[in-house]
Amino acid sequence: MEEYGKHILSIEGRKKLKLEGVQHVGSFDEQEITLDTNMGFLQLKGEGMHITHLNLDQGSLVVEGFINGLAYMEGRSAKGTKAKGKGFINRLLK
């Protein structure tokens, strides 16, 4: 079995998600966050989600909001996904 390093995921009442092992955040908005972790690509889905803590040097992330689901997906990377920001500038520059 391969050794991937520290990877801990905890969810408190579907309202707060803590994750260790984050390598890259690909895109994020209130409904979806895509991440590269040391265990592969991770997609978070929910409502009103926002990142309250991110430290890529330590590989830690905290997300608050309502968590509907999460999925690890093989063969994908968050580095290749486009940002899904809903802001005026992002829409203007499409």
TrEMBL record:
GO biological process, one term: sporulation resulting in formation of a cellular spore
One Pfam family here: YabP
Name of the featured protein: Sporulation protein YabP
Organism: Desulforamulus putei DSM 12395
